Amino acid sequence: MLGRVAGLGPYFELVAEEVSGEAGWGAFPGGAGRLREVVRDHAGRLGTDETRVAASLLFQGLAARIWSPVVAAAALGVVPDLSGLRWRWAPGEPIMLGLADVRGWRVGSVAEAVEIVHPMVVDGLLRPLREALLDFVRLADGLVWGNAASALAGSLNVGAADPGRAAIVRALLAREPLVGAGSFGPRGFVRNNCCLYYRVPGGGMCGDCGLAR
């Protein structure tokens, strides 16, 4: 199943081979020290000296890499267990997410999938990531969860239209802390705030930016 959803694109990939500490893999999200290094590297790649901007965009990118494969697999009837999620990063290299112990749950409905996915991702991964970032940079709650909602809704823009994926995404967006972060309209999902990408040199407003309305 992981191989099948990985075919949708790089943000849907979860490495399932050679995921170990010896190969540079560490527990996600790890401590603030490692995250500070990643944010610094991310800022350099973006060309910004604003730590807040780099941290915001890093959080959104990581949220997208977590939501995308989980929702796509859930729509096909299997929710991968991310409780042991690991990640690998080195300066100048893309971040990889992986699982050393590949397992999951079979699900037969949207409600069943959401009951597993929501606490696993929101409480088990995104909240710890947020807390680790807050150790060294200030990020408003609205921005953080707006980024998480944007990453979740944005996963629907990759691959063919899939009613199953769409139903899971909408059900997740209806739960705290994502509820109220944005809404679907004629041009798709539009968030109520901004990820700060417009502050990146040469950047602009994203397609779902609330400032564009």
What does this protein look like?
The chain is of the alpha+beta class and 213 residues long. The protein has one domain (2-212). 45% of the residues lie in helices and 12% in strands. It is built from six helices and seven strands. The protein has helices at 2-6, 32-46, 51-75, 110-134, 141-154, 163-173; strands at 25-27, 78-80, 85-88, 96-99, 104-106, 182-185, 188-191. Strands 1-3-4 form a three-stranded antiparallel sheet, with no helix packed on it. A hairpin with a 7-residue loop joins β3 and β4. The protein is globular, with a radius of gyration of 16 Å.
Condensed summary:
It is built from 6 helices and 7 strands. The mean pLDDT is 92. It has helices at 2-6, 32-46, 51-75, 110-134, 141-154, 163-173; strands at 25-27, 78-80, 85-88, 96-99, 104-106, 182-185, 188-191.
